[in-house]
Design brief:
CATH architecture of the largest domain: Alpha/alpha barrel
Strand order of the largest sheet: 1-2
Order of helices and strands: HHHHHHEHHEHHHHEEEHEH
Distance between the termini: 55 Å
Number of helices: 14
Shape: globular
Largest sheet: 2 strands, antiparallel
Helix content: 40-55%
Number of domains: 2
Structural class: mainly alpha
Strand content: under 5%
């Protein structure tokens, strides 16, 4: 064989190998379940090498917490150590060798500071010789000892939101509180945890619809608060989504013989048919303002829809709910995938349709009106949507198997 011909054939071989190397990962990725594909897409967008100054995922907050919890579950499900390694690296940007936490201010008394504590608890068990994780978990737990409460013992949402319990806060506090209590043998805490749910059921549930108002103000002083009930004016789906996820996650740790465990299951069973009733029959999703789907401006919101899918699917899988709710979850999930999940040219997944935020009070003042909830921006690949979607995907994938 002449040298020019040999060179030509060798060039073709190298070119074909390069092409195979470029296409094989994309082809392989397409065969993975959606939970893993979405997680891989997220990690590619937020690699663990960016550092705390550049990466949103490395900054302390509840959005980080829900994302890391989702990634951790993918690692547990797949057995692939890359995912827990990622969580480990991200948490270590904030947790210092002495157990202090960069970006955490205990004096803020904000429940939003606690969700990432669940990943810290995981690391404290995996790396027991690295005492910083236990110290950091203890630091977060200590906040609850002095955290301001309503007269009946409910955690304020934040110090700057006095006398208020928000639905969001149940997810921010109770799963961490319950897991910590189980790991470190503090059974008395479960009475306190159950009380938080009981207060929300008492003050936020609307007797006509069964839906839950976003929050209540015990003092009834806020401009958004009903002067008779203290309730906020509307039903915000993501607030209920946080609450539904809190219920199914807390049950993972609640002692089987605890008197209030059965009540928590009843709370979930009360909520499930309400969610099924307000599911949009066309898309399978849930509207931003839950009960006003036909009103101008309302839209299917993807973080809340993912949260409801997760809670209903998990509840059905674990036997808390009738199996018919697995079908409700599947319909919701199919709608999410069909209408809101896109694939980019390089094979990454993108999630659309997540509202950026929802709150009450503050400056500028959020009055809880229908117009307010419709005024917040809709975002792509928002952590509060992607994390719950990954968790919902895992539940749907387990149900199929």
């Amino acid at each position: 064989m002449t040298n020019p011909l040999r060179f030509f054939l060798l060039s073709l071989l190298l070119l074909s190998q390069a092409s195979w190397a470029q296409t094989k990962p994309k082809a392989a990725a397409a065969t993975k379940p959606l939970s893993q594909r979405m997680t891989d897409s997220f990690i590619a967008e937020y690699p663990d090498s960016l550092g705390i100054q550049k990466s949103r995922i490395a900054r302390w907050g509840y959005e980080q917490g829900v994302m890391l919890a989702a990634i951790e579950r993918v690692g547990q499900r797949t057995g692939d150590p890359r995912y827990l390694d990622y969580v480990h690296k991200i948490v270590d940007y904030s947790v210092q060798p002495d157990g202090t936490i960069t970006g955490y201010k205990a004096d803020d008394y904000s429940v939003d500071n606690l969700p990432t504590g669940r990943s810290i608890l995981t690391l404290s068990q995996k790396y027991p010789k690295e005492t910083k994780y236990r110290k950091a978990a203890d630091l977060l737990r200590q906040q609850l000892t002095t955290h301001p409460r309503t007269k009946e013992g409910g955690f304020w949402h934040k110090k700057r939101y006095p006398n208020q319990m928000w639905l969001d806060g149940l997810y921010m506090v109770e799963p961490f509180y319950a897991e910590y209590s189980k790991l470190f043998n503090q059974p008395a805490n479960f009475d306190d945890i159950a009380k938080q749910f009981a207060l929300i059921e008492k003050y936020c549930v609307d007797p006509k619809t069964g839906l839950l108002y976003h929050a209540y103000d015990e003092s009834k002083e806020q401009k958004w608060a009903n002067k008779q009930t203290g309730q906020s004016p509307n039903f915000w789906s993501r607030g209920m989504g946080w609450y539904a996820m809190a219920l199914v996650d807390v049950l993972d740790y609640f002692p089987k013989n605890h008197l209030q465990r059965a009540q928590l299951i009843k709370d979930l069973q009360r909520l499930a048919p309400v969610l099924a009733k307000y599911q949009d029959p066309k898309t399978g999703g849930w509207y931003q303002v839950t009960d006003q789907g036909t009103r101008a401006g309302n839209y299917i919101e993807t973080s809340s829809s993912s949260m409801f899918v997760y809670a209903l699917a998990k509840g059905a899988r674990l036997g808390y709910l009738d199996k018919k709710y697995a079908a409700v979850a599947q319909k919701g999930y199919d709608g999410l995938v069909k209408n809101f999940i896109e694939t980019t040219p390089d094979g990454a997944l993108v999630m659309n349709g997540t509202v950026s935020v929802g709150g009450l009070g503050g400056d500028p003042y959020r009055d809880g009106s229908y117009e307010y909830y419709l005024s917040e921006k809709i975002k792509k690949n928002d952590f509060k949507g992607v994390g719950p979607f990954i968790m919902a995907s895992l539940e749907i994938e387990m149900a199929k198997r």
